[in-house]
Amino acid sequence: MLKIIIPFIFVNLLSSMNQEPTYLVLNHFDKDIPQAEKLLVENFNNSKFEFDAALENIFTDLDSYDNPASSHMDMMKELGEKYKVSFILLNKIEHKEDRFVLDGLLFNTRSGGLIHRRKIDLKQYLDGQINELIMWVGNTLGVQEKEWQKNRESILFNDPEELTYDKTPMGAAIRSLIAPGWGQAYSNKKTSAGVWFGVEASLSLAFILSYLNYDKSAKGFLSNTDLYHQTDDEKLVAKHRAAAEKDWGNHIIYSRLAIALASATSTGWVSNSIHAWVFGPRPYTNIYQEWDSSSELNKG
Amino acid sequence: MQMNHFLKIVYLLIIGYSNLFSQIKLDVSTIPKRVDVYLDGVNLGTSPVLNERIKPGLHKFEIKKKGFAPLAYDLLVNPAQAIKLDFFLNPIYKIKFKTEEKGLVFELNGEHRWDVPFIRLELEAGDHFLRVFKIGEIIDEQTIRVDEPKRFNYYLKKPLTSG
After folding, report:
1. Which of B46, B68, B88 is the last residue of a domain?
2. What is the reported pTM?
3. Nearest residue of chain B to residue A123 (CA atoms)
4. Domain housing A231
5. Which residues have CB under 8 Å from B89's CB, separation 6+?
6. Per-residue b/e over B114-150, b at no fewer than 16 CB within 10 Å?
7. 8 A C-beta contact, residue B37 and residue B48
8. Contact present, B142 and A287 (Cβ < 8 Å)
9. SS3 A245
């Protein structure tokens, strides 16, 4: 794999004029990081960048040395004298599959020793390289902007405990408890929403009709019983008796029917809410076989 | 002459003493915050850890928080300097993987294999390499991104109409 090696030299000139620590910054990236140089200049103005490919050998893996802190002492001293700086800052960015590693090393040119090291090993910190580089350079120069911190946090993966969703299974369950089918509709399951609403509406209607018939039969029975007691006419007695017996029979049937329908309605209502929770909105991704010509992830 | 010897010994003793007992200022920051930080097996408390002291030499940091992949990091600390460490923990998400296809064997990151239609996994956030086998042959390879707790549904064919 072709690796792009881009060492930059960045000398903090302003500091040197005030006899404050001066820095030589060497950047080594294995991939091109667009606008890295420009952004470094923008964030740390009064600084100067130069390009020098001859310093590539500094960027070997320091961890392979027995004593990384002193492995390049002579070279650092020489560079310090050459560029008249008090510190040398090495920034190495490597991409290893889905990870990116930023190895920041600060050397003191007087002793040549490594005095500060910052290593970041991140998985899938997309487009975060330049932000981390700026933060590290800023850290060594004593500058830290809140915006950089916010940038970093915005790019990182979310804490599972802090994840919030617009739609939740509990939201669906509560909606279905208020109105059957609402939770399913909220979860974009229109068919099951219609079925649940239809079933519950039918059961409720049947229950109401049964109750009304029960009520009518009960009142009819009482009315016919009164009429039965108030008359001595044989024909009317027989008529009211037959009507009262019919009302009694109906009252029993509709009473049982109303109780059964009420049970069915309430059980269905709760089941509908549970169904809404079980099949509620949860994040998913459909993966289709990629080796089959057209391949894409359909995010749900 | 004797005085010179004495001064040299005193000087060496001072240097040796300061090197032996010199401690370096240590700050440890983490994302997320309130993470248990262990230095050489000793709990330093929860992050951010500020103004701790560390002796020069090789040290092992361990950073642990429930719901995140633990991190172990070896660091050689150079004498007489301050050290500031930033650790980023990668979250672990609960994943469900489901397929209605028959006879498939799945392999994730070349390590974990399964052949059941539904499995629960705990995966570190980021990209993971999925390989699919059927009758011993690879029939698919692709990278799936885990960026939140969710369910993956695997299909052999893409539907004609979406939605």
Report:
1. B88
2. 0.62
3. B126
4. 169-287
5. B30, B31, B32, B35, B63, B65, B68, B69, B70, B71
6. eeeeebebebbbbbbebbbbeeeeebbebebebbbbb
7. no
8. yes
9. helix
Domain count, chain A: 2
What are the pLDDT digits (tens) for A15-68?
444 455 677 778 777 777 777 767 777 777 655 555 454 566 565 655 555 555
Contact at CB, A289 and B157, closer than 8 angstroms? yes
A116 plus A237 within the same structural domain: no
Q: Is A124 on the interface with B (CB under 8 A)?
A: yes
> What is the nearest CA distance from B49 to chain A, expressed in angstroms?
16
Residue A37 is part of a domain; what is its CATH number? 3.40.50
Question: Total structural domains in chain B?
Answer: 2
The Cα of A106 is separated from the nearest Cα of chain B by a number of Å equal to 11
A90 and A234: one domain? no
User: Model confidence over A138-175: pLDDT tens digits?
Assistant: 777 777 778 887 777 777 788 877 788 889 999 999 99
Closest residue, chain B, to A117 (C-alpha): B83
Same domain for A127 and A193, yes or no, is no
Query: How far, rounded to the nearest angstrom, does the alpha carbon of residue A22 sit from its chain's CA centroid?
Result: 43
B91 → chain A, closest CA residue? A159
Quote the DSSP letter at residue B91. Answer: B
